[in-house]
Design brief:
The model has no long low-confidence stretch (mean pLDDT 95). The protein starts with 8 loop residues before the first strand and ends with a helix. The protein has helices spanning 30-44, 70-73, 79-86, 99-107, 123-127, 130-137, 174-187, 207-216, 227-233, 248-261, 302-313, 334-348, 360-366, 381-387, 393-399; strands at residues 9-13, 48-52, 90-92, 113-115, 142-145, 170-172, 194-198, 219-222, 237-238, 264-266, 270-274, 283-287, 290-291, 296-300, 317-321, 352-355, 375-376. It is α/β, with parallel strands linked by helices. The strands form four sheets. The chain has a six-stranded parallel sheet with strand order 3-4-2-1-5-6, with helices on both faces. A six-stranded parallel sheet has the order 10-8-7-15-16-17, sandwiched between helices. Strands 12-11-14 form a three-stranded antiparallel sheet. Strand 1 (9-13), helix 1 (30-44) and strand 2 form a beta-alpha-beta unit. Helices cover 36% and strands 16% of the residues. Bound molecules: adenosine monophosphate. Adenosine monophosphate binds next to strand 14.
Length: 400
């Protein structure tokens, strides 16, 4: 954030999309805390801060009479807690670009903070409407985007608004800068060998990622439900494991491409299989290419855990996206836990590790290993798209 904030009004797009209990108490304030360094920096430099965020999907959850459920989706619920965290009062505008927002932003003085009402109360937000964005922009001198998780959406507050500021008056906040810098460590000139671990349910969700990774990783480890489409494509018997029949050709092409490029492609040699998709199903261990009829692979097996661990420990850069099994059920969480531990161990040995996009983030956090890997992305879908090599509209709007 190499900008001059003194005496400037700074419009900051944050991600305050936090969960609440039934009494609107915030149950997890990670996202609010994540934005504090950016807000505090601007205030310390002598600027004032106008915060904007979405909260939930108010236009998809209208009241029976068709009106907005303001009580459920107002950002007013955040004011008290945010004031406490910042150690100063936070003003609240009852609208996003309306008369209240305009009056309060106009009167804002250095050191003061104003929170605008939910950007998604107006359908113009998600439409990326230029008039709506221009009115947001008119309230401030500088625009800062610190909502990486929304950077893949061309909405008014994440993208269009940036078009109303020149390069000297817009930039990324610390949170977003951090996400981009860490992803770039893997994407551009990573320390090698670079290992990517990709899991999750379906090949179809990760096609672009796999295709891109094969071009520049040294080792590609595939686990989770998606592995069985590969195993089947190579002629294995996978019982009733999750298979996308229409993706077997693509799986073979990826296997072939890996060979041509000299990429080591690892599939789970064995699996924990179950006779039912349930936490209390009967289970056994068998070769992933020899799963009996009526059984399905729900986790990687012990041989796979060992092989994956060896590869991970030999890597200097690691990217992990997606769990190795149905980790939500204790009986099938072992492979994901073991991979999390291997990634943490490799990090301890000096590797750079990025966990991003998908449920692997939840897995690492649940296992208390988040501080033992180099970076845990909060970017979800945005991180996945960034790793796929897509140009995210929210980033492009700032970088030009
Ligand atoms: P993703 O969002 O792509 O990271 O996928 C995560 C989901 O994949 C989780 O809900 C897992 O339960 C699911 N998953 C992982 N392994 C399997 C498997 N072997 N069979 C079915 N679902 C799986």
């Amino acid at each position: 954030m190499n900008l001059q904030f003194k005496d400037k009004k700074v419009l900051v797009r944050v991600d305050f999309n936090v969960p609440f209990d039934a009494d609107f108490n915030i149950t997890d304030d990670t996202r609010i805390r994540g934005a504090l360094p950016t807000i505090q920096h601007i205030l310390k430099e002598g600027g004032s801060v106008i915060l904007m965020s979405h909260l939930g999907r108010p236009l998809k959850k209208l009241l029976p009479d068709g009106s907005l459920d303001v009580k459920k989706h107002t950002l007013q619920h955040l004011v008290a807690h945010l004031s406490e965290l910042l150690g100063r009062p936070v003003q609240f505008a009852k609208d996003t670009i309306g008369p209240d927002a305009q009056a309060k932003s106009k009167a804002l003085r250095p050191g003061e903070v104003l929170l605008l009402e939910n950007t998604r109360f107006d359908k113009k937000e998600e439409a990326g409407d230029p008039d709506f964005a221009e009115k947001m922009a008119a309230m401030a001198d500088i625009y800062i985007n610190d909502a990486f998780g929304s950077a893949h959406r061309a909405h008014a507050s994440t993208t269009t608004v940036a078009n109303f500021f020149d390069a000297q008056h817009k930039g990324f906040g610390f949170l977003m800068e951090n996400e981009i810098t860490n992803a770039d460590k893997v994407l551009h000139n990573p320390a090698r060998p670079l290992a990517a671990i990709v899991g999750g349910a379906k090949v179809s969700d990760k096609i672009l990622l796999l295709e891109r990774l094969i071009d520049f990783v040294d080792i590609l480890i595939i686990g989770g439900g998606m592995a069985y489409t590969f195993v089947k494509a190579k002629g294995g018997h996978v019982g009733k494991s999750l298979v996308e029949e229409d993706k077997t050709d693509l799986a073979l092409q990826l296997v072939q491409k890996a060979k041509e490029k000299g990429v080591t492609l690892l599939l789970p040699e064995d699996s924990v299989v179950a006779d039912n998709f349930a936490g209390d199903a009967n289970t056994q261990i068998c070769e992933s290419a020899d799963i009996p009829d009526g059984w399905m692979g729900l986790d990687i097996g012990p041989k796979a855990v060992d092989a994956f661990r060896k590869s991970i420990l030999g890597a200097k850069s690691i990217l992990w996206n997606g769990p190795m099994g149905v980790f939500e059920m204790e009986a099938f969480a072992n492979g994901t836990k073991a991979v999390a531990e291997s990634v943490a161990e490799a990090t301890g040995l000096g590797a750079f590790s990025l966990v991003g996009g998908g449920d692997s983030v939840a897995a690492v956090t649940q296992m208390g290993l988040a501080d033992q890997v180099s970076f845990v992305s909060t970017g979800g879908g945005a991180m996945l798209e960034y790793l796929e090599g897509k140009e995210l509209p929210g980033i492009k709007a700032i970088r030009g």
